């Protein structure tokens, strides 16, 4: 498949996809895109605004994965006791993309985000671990083995714990390592979604 991986980060969702697909990853931070490229040298990596890239290129792909920024939606905004977060407006790019894809995209797509602190404005297709997904793929709810316990009031996991849990070893000297790992999608979740697509096409992963 030709896959568009938006807001790609370090590629947690892409880790178990293998190399048989033609993947374009879009990430707006150059240093994060550089890390992604080290992990997946065969992918096309574009440093750009993923939201605009989706609008300009959505017709070119067989499957679109989008993971818009989650901090403005996260329950941690209300539950973090030691370092309260500043109130901000929820980033509506999340819902803009869901609405747009539902009405204009004829290929398979999925939008992923954390379970928010509010009732979602659009009902999700499924709950995957601590994430909601919106999609035109038939996906069932599922939890994944993470290798550590999620505690929304104490989510200060060390880089080593996160690296082991995700199976991702960041290059020496990479800045913001814990943040990059915390923002990564669990690789098993990415694989599960791809398996659902392939199963419905009669293809084995």
Give an account of the 3D structure:
- With 205 residues, the chain is an alpha/beta fold.
- It has a single domain, classed as Rossmann fold (3-Layer(aba) Sandwich).
- 31% of the residues lie in helices and 17% in strands.
- The chain is built from seven helices and seven strands; from the N terminus they run ββαβαβααβββααα.
- It has a seven-stranded mixed sheet, with helices on both faces.
- Strand 6 and strand 7 form a beta hairpin.
- Helix 5 packs parallel to helix 6.
- The chain is globular and about 40 Å long.
- About 3% of the residues have low confidence.
Please give a handful of descriptors for the protein shown.
single chain, 205 residues, alpha/beta, Rossmann fold, 7-stranded mixed β-sheet, 7 helices, 7 strands
* SS class: alpha/beta
Number of distinct beta strands: 7
| Distinct helical segment count | 7
CATH classification, class level: Alpha Beta
CATH architecture: 3-Layer(aba) Sandwich
Largest beta-sheet characterization? 7 strands, mixed
Mean pLDDT across residues? 87
Whole-number tally of structural domains = 1
Sequence of strands across the biggest β-sheet: 3-2-1-4-5-7-6
Estimate the global geometry from the Cα principal axes.
globular
Distance between the termini: 12 Å
Helix percent band: 25-40%
Portion in beta strands: 15-25%
Q: Topology as H/E string?
A: EEHEHEHHEEEHHH
The CATH topology is: Rossmann fold
Stretches where pLDDT is under 50 for at least 5 consecutive residues are: 149-155
Rounded Rg: 16 Å
